[in-house]
Amino acid sequence: MALVPFDDRDGWIWLDGAFVPWRDAKIHILSHAVHYGSAVFEGERMYNGRIFALEEHTERLINSAALLDFTIPFDGDAINAASIATCVKNGFTDCYVRPIAWRGAEQLSVSARETKIHLAIAVWDWPKYFDEEKFARGIRLCWAKYRRPPANSAPTAAKAVGLYMICTVSKNAAERDGYEDALMLDTEGNIAETTGANIFFIRDGVLHTPIADRFLDGITRRTIIAMARARGLEVIDRRISPLELDTFSECFVVGTAAEVTPVGEIAEHRFTPGPITFGLADGYAALVRGEPPAKAHQTIRTVTVSA
């Protein structure tokens, strides 16, 4: 299926407080964000007319901007309302939602205090990220070329555009080699995340997931932890060495785009998608569509093991 370029589509984009035709939603080539990566964004999904975890996503968008030293000129309520209105304007009840905030073209240097801050929201149709065959057998991951940067050298808690360049490089390389994605390590060589999703492992019915203090603590990640614990499963949040991979029976990745997707292999390591993975995938699918299992989306604490 041929890809339709994103600048060659019809519809409406919410831009700085007003709807503009999709093809007219443009920024200048000398915008600060283009040259210095000074932009933050969110990835959200609307299911059955409701944007899942909208308030959490908007809060993270605002916090990400603050970490990049700028303030979005709209409050959370306005952003939430604009996100919903953009879906309605484009006639969607199921879609992907992309808010993005960035520094404009008033100043083009490392210093950017005089730039105007812009906000746009676009929505589009989003099919299932991986087909049913890949979902059933589990996707294939290789090792990423780059590691996630340490928290003392980059704003790793922000969903900032600049942090994704090494993800693009790694994802492209993985796809060229026949894999669906790449698994990244942190600066100490522990398992971190894939290029766009958090990861979980299962051993003897217990879920293990890397501590999200050196990469983005995903909203889907938090949701799955809550759902697992609500089902009586133990979740251990800790450093995970690549040397442990052969001790796990199941593996899956989670994210707004990937939802809950089983993993069948990581390089030479093999996993068999099983009932825990598929059960959480089904539970998540029900939850985001407004049919939550009992206590599935409550706030809980994980068991944290020190590094």
TL;DR of this structure?
With 307 residues, this protein is of the alpha+beta class. It is built from seven helices and 17 strands. Strands 8, 9, 10, 11, 12, 13, 14, 15, 16 and 17 form a ten-stranded mixed sheet that branches. Strands 1, 2, 3, 4, 5, 6 and 7 form a seven-stranded antiparallel sheet that branches.
Give a topology summary.
Blueprint: E1 12-15, E2 18-21, H1 32-36, E3 39-41, E4 44-47, E5 50-51, H2 54-67, H3 76-89, E6 95-103, E7 117-124, H4 132-137, E8 139-143, H5 165-176, E9 181-185, E10 191-194, E11 198-203, E12 206-210, H6 219-230, E13 235-238, E14 250-255, E15 259-266, E16 269-270, H7 275-288, E17 303-304
Parallel strand pairs: 8-9, 8-15, 12-13, 13-17
Antiparallel strand pairs: 1-2, 1-7, 3-6, 4-5, 4-6, 6-7, 9-10, 11-12, 11-14, 14-15, 15-16
Helix pairs in contact: 2-3
- The proportion of strand residues reads 25-35%
Q: Nearest-angstrom radius of gyration?
A: 19 Å
The CATH H-level homologous superfamily of the largest domain: D-amino Acid Aminotransferase, subunit A, domain 2
**Average pLDDT, to the nearest integer?**
93
Span between N and C termini?
46 Å
Tally of extended strands? 17
Morphology = globular
The biggest sheet, with number of strands, parallel, antiparallel or mixed sense and barrel status, is: 10 strands, mixed
Number of helices: 7
Low-confidence stretches: 294-307
Coarse structural class: alpha+beta
Q: Helix share of residues?
A: 25-40%
Give me the CATH fold name of the largest domain: D-amino Acid Aminotransferase, Chain A, domain 2
What's the CATH architecture of the largest domain? Alpha-Beta Barrel
The top-level CATH class of the largest domain is Alpha Beta
